[in-house]
Amino acid sequence: MPKNMKKRPLLSILLQIPVYTMVVGLISTICDIFYELYFLFKYPKFKYLFVIEGSDIDTDVEACYIPTPYYKILKSLKTLKSLLKGFEDSIFIEIGSGSGRAMFAASSKGFRHIIGIELSKTLCDLSEQNLKIHLHKETNYKILHCNEKDISFPDLIDNADKEKIRSLVFYLGGTIISIQNLTKLKELNNKFDIYIVNVGPLQDRATYDVIEENGFSVVFEKFKENKDKPNIIQKFINYSGAFSTSYHLPQGYRIYKNK
Ligand SMILES: C[S@@+](CC[C@H](N)C(=O)[O-])C[C@H]1O[C@@H](n2cnc3c(N)ncnc32)[C@H](O)[C@@H]1O
């Protein structure tokens, strides 16, 4: 065996993923599972779905619906809190808000202004039910049943002056922010600190390049992408649900801020 060639365990070779990714991925997966169970037991009335095809809900989005792992939601909110130093004067805007879990977590960590944007009417109704029961009573929230592309963010947050809002957080759990909206965010650049939090696998690399081209830079990154081409086992793991992100991206989130 050549000297510069690293030894890899058999499992890693079979899965064709680097050792680091595999070890951290496994730990992260265990945390994902543990936190999912914790969530299920702690909030039994919070209804959410596991993996379902887009065609099973009322959207024409081809990709299947996967809930953002609760562990990743909590970790990313913790990092965000250290960057923002408090959430009371911020608006949390989730694009693709699904069953409302990230909105709920954001409220319980201190956000008082929350907006969810969701394409599926079924998921909007589900999140409405969930948030009615679980959201912190002092939280202002709305869930918009629409495509993110049809929204103008400067119009959406026009009451911000009244509420003394200083930062905006765009939370993407497996969704993207459209290029036209990214360009429009420039209109808000002078007024707010703007954060974009991307949790989960990269959906479309070009879009993430566009985020940077539009005046944002990465301020926090826990991405360890598996650059190898996924083999059949990995494809299965990737498809198999909420915990898949652990294999792609062991710690799985990236935060951008406007300059
Ligand atoms: C990967 S799921 C994440 C859901 C959510 N974060 C959760 O944990 O329940 C992505 C969600 O984004 C929604 N979605 C996809 N594209 C969208 C768009 N352009 N505008 C609004 N919602 C969108 C889908 O319907 C789906 O519910």
Can you walk through the features of this model?
The structure is a single chain. Helices cover 40% and strands 17% of the residues. By secondary structure, it is of the alpha/beta class. It has a single domain, classed as Vaccinia Virus protein VP39 (Rossmann fold), CATH 3.40.50.150. Helix 3 crosses helix 4. The longest helix is centred in the N-terminal third of the chain and has 24 residues, at 19-42. The termini are far apart. The structure holds S-adenosylmethionine. S-adenosylmethionine is lined by residues 59, 61, 65-68, 95-99, 101-102, 117-120, 123, 147-149, 173-175.
Would you identify the CATH architecture?
3-Layer(aba) Sandwich
List low-pLDDT spans. 239-250
Instruction: Write down the CATH class.
Output: Alpha Beta
* Bulk shape: globular
Number of strands: 7
What is the mean pLDDT? Answer: 79
Strand content: 15-25%
Structural class: alpha/beta
The rounded Rg comes to 19 Å
Bound molecules: S-adenosylmethionine
- What pattern of helices and strands is seen along the backbone? HHHEHEHEHHEHEHEHHE
By DSSP (H or I, 4+ residues per run), the number of helices equals 11
